Amino acid sequence: MSTQEDVALFKQAMASFPSGVMIVTTIDANGRWWGFTATSFCSVSMDPPLVLVCLADTAECHPVFAAAERWVVHVVHPEHADLAVRFATRGADKFADAGFVTDEHGLPVLDRACVTLSCTPYARHAGGDHTILIGQVERSHVGDDLPAVYFRRGFHALPTPT
Prior knowledge:
The protein has helices at residues 4-15, 62-67, 81-87; strands spanning 19-20, 22-27, 33-38, 41-46, 49-56, 71-75, 100-102, 108-110, 115-127, 130-142, 148-151, 154-157. By secondary structure, the protein is an alpha+beta fold. The chain has a single domain (20-152), classed as Pnp Oxidase, Chain A (Roll), CATH 2.30.110.10.
């Protein structure tokens, strides 16, 4: 990308790709909860079950996730749009009154996520200004709610299947 216009067009192109919305959580060595919002997420492998999520190197929680022994990926529904924005905001009190409970490893789990994937690290890779976290899924939970879709910088609800 050579010009500001090229960068702006690339950002617009990426915003025009609809994606799910994930909140990713972990704990640090002192038991403090950390998390971030991601839209860069996909499955990598079925055997072993692997997923990836991308985290900005400048994120406040980056050092914690770079050393984390576990993390949880939550696919959120449209009612969690404000929460997803909060988890994308530097310095926000992310977990206050947000509906998280503690799992058996002490990690924060969003009680009503559409999908919850409990992961252990499989690999971490540099990817430009982001780190690609590849997690091996140890446990999956699928709820009944439909996920939020993020498209052109806005949250959207999927139509209810008939």
